[in-house]
Each structure stands twice: as C-alpha cells, then as structure tokens.
Design a protein that fits this description.
With 177 residues, the protein is an alpha+beta fold. The chain is 27% helix and 42% strand. The chain has helices spanning 7-31, 34-38, 56-67, 167-172; strands at residues 41-48, 53-55, 72-85, 88-102, 108-124, 127-143.
C-alpha cells in the first residue's frame, strides 16, 4: 500500500509510526505493561540505558526488577526528530521522567530525570520498531520527599497505577494494541 502513495505522504506516515513507537514505549514503562514494551523493540534489538547495556531480552527483566518497588513513573515526551533512509530511521526524542521511588530507610522520594532517546529504528514487514537505543542522560534531580495526595488541593484524586489497575485498562483497554 505504501508503494502506491506519493513519497511525501508515505514519509509522513512513517514518521507518525515512529513517533507512535516512542509514545508506546513511555506508556509501557509507566504502566509496567511488559507485553506492550516487547512490541516496541525488535527481538534482536539492543538498549544502552545507562545502568543497563545489552540485548532487549535482558532489558525487559532489568526494567521489571528495577521498577517493581516504585510507586509510579511518568514520562513526558517532547520533540521527536526523525530522519528517514528507506526502511531505516534515526530518531532523537527529548524526554523528562518523574519517578516516585522508595527510600532505603522507608518513605518515598521523587526523582526527576531529563534526557534524550537516540534510536535507530528499522521497518520490517511494514512495521517500525526500535533496533538500537541509547538513553542519553542530560540531568537529574532527587527531591528528599514525595507528594501526598491525601493532603492535596485536588481532593479525592484518581491516581495512576500499573497494569491492570490503571484506569487505562478498565476504560479503554479494548482499544489498545
């Protein structure tokens, strides 16, 4: 089908599909949805994530173990630059991530991380996925404490959670791919 489209239209669709891969990565990590996380990488992909560098088959277990005790994590994706060369592409994505993590002595602290995902993407059988990712850290900040929604001005707030408890899965789960 893509062959029958004008080149500019096909490139727009490819760029949109690549951006969708990045957005789905953020959702998958934030919701701890490991089936969705596997769908954004090719099985032979590599991830260089700072404390982890290796094949994605091991990366998934590392993310699971590392984030298991975290109360929440939220990725904010900003600009995504995409450079296409046939069935390969380079993508640079700026992100910010807020994480609520346990203190060793009890209680919680917040961590704010900013950086860029530098991705080599490949298209196979019409589908784009990550082939190689380098997580480039630009800055971070640890806060000594964390928020407490019980004492917030928002009242009884609906808090996000991990799969399957997040409202994403109960309200619109049937639409997720």
């Amino acid at each position: 089908m893509m062959e029958s489209l004008p080149k500019g239209v096909a490139e727009m669709l490819d760029r949109d599909a690549i951006r969708d891969v990045v957005y789905r990565f953020a959702r998958a990590v934030d919701r701890r949805d490991f089936n969705a996380l596997r769908d954004v990488y090719w099985p032979d992909a590599v991830d260089e994530h700072g404390a982890f560098n290796g094949p994605v088959s091991e990366f998934f277990d590392w993310v699971d173990e590392r984030t298991r005790g975290w109360d929440r994590t939220v990725h904010y994706i900003s600009q995504i630059s995409v450079d296409l060369k046939g069935d390969e592409a380079g993508a640079e994505t700026y992100y910010m991530c807020v994480q609520k993590k346990p203190k060793p002595e009890g209680g919680w602290f917040d961590e704010l991380v900013g950086g860029r995902y530098v991705d080599k993407m490949t298209k196979r059988d019409g589908e784009w996925r990550i082939q190689h990712r380098i997580n480039v850290f630009e800055w971070f900040r640890h806060f000594p404490d964390s928020f407490d929604f019980k004492n917030s001005p928002f009242g009884k707030a609906q808090l996000g959670g991990h799969k399957p408890h997040d409202p994403l899965y109960s309200l619109i789960g049937k639409f997720l791919t």
